[in-house]
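Incident log entry.

Two folding requests arrived from the same account within the same minute. Monitoring flagged them as a possible duplicate submission, but the sequences differ. Recording both here for audit purposes.

Request one:
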Amino acid sequence: MTGKDEAIGYWAKMRGTGRSPLKVAWRTAAIAAAGGIAAIAVLAGLSDWTSAKWIMAPFGASCVLAFGLWDSPLAQPRNIIGGHLLSTLVGLVVYHGFGAGPVGMAVAVGLAIGLMVLTKTTHPPAGADPIVVMTSGSGWSFLFAPVLLGAIVIVLIALLFNNLDPKRRYPTFWL
């Protein structure tokens, strides 16, 4: 195979081979919407009612996975909680050790991705956590609230809402 053939093959892979495998079901969409509403309402309400911050933007994306793609390995409790904790910890270490410049942000996100993959805690929304840490100038308490507490709330609400459907079993694994 020549270099030209390899290049053509490389670009040809980007065409895709079919249609989306995702299924559309009104019941699934209703549970996903209700679960997302409940999780964000609880987190936002707790933020209003207490002096602690309970919410951050990546939690909206976590809700997409937890309620819309509940059976995905990326949406399991281990991944939601572990991914957010690990990525935030990486963000805090890099931020407090090296600062929040473009290189620090890039290194923190890259390290967080690599460590999530190695620890089987991959959760795509958590990849944004180091950026949140650095752009908000977060302190070490950010790891506890909103990250740990918020992730636990999302998982608890996912347990309640996802199991309302007799055809669902959430989680598919814990460890």
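Request two (distinct sequence, not a duplicate):
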Amino acid sequence: MQSKSISIAVIKRLPRYYRYLGELLAHDVVRISSKELSEKMGVTASQIRQDLNNFGGFGQQGYGYQVEYLYTEIGKILGLDKKNNLIILGAGNLGMALTNSTGLQKRGFEVIGIFDINPEVVGTSVRGIPVMHVNELEQFIKTHQVDMAALTVPKAVAPTLAADIVKWGVKAIWNFAPTDLQLPPDVVQENVHLTESLMRLSYKKKAAEEEKK
């Protein structure tokens, strides 16, 4: 079903569908039409149907979408039907925030280790998860199932650290460092550049102010 190429724009919308459907489930909504879902999400009903048709459609004409079923199927598409073991590289504020996020565990992302070089945090634990020295990183990766790594380290060390963990077997990197990583083609990455996001917000604010003039 997913052998054809799916556009990045569609993939970016899938987590939003998953989140909104989860909220509907929490309010005991059994079914919903593409029109009703579009009104909640600010996406056209046509766009919703086109997006979901990439994966088989899931809806019935005149009935709409069965919320629980669609929520489950999108979860499978996103790979959320299985647990993903995650390590956090960098025990600063952002690394700690990720570790303490209950949302990660609810979505099946299990933090199994945190790594840093700061002697003040190495040897401590967060939510029962040990903070280890980066010198232990290679051995840890080689002896544990590490599905993903979150990179919350300074820009200067991010490329070298990323290259090392890829060499040791990590194939998926969640990159929060303000730099683009040059990785082998068989390694996937998701970049979260917070300052770039803030600059996009600044642009939208400026554009909205100019429209009012």
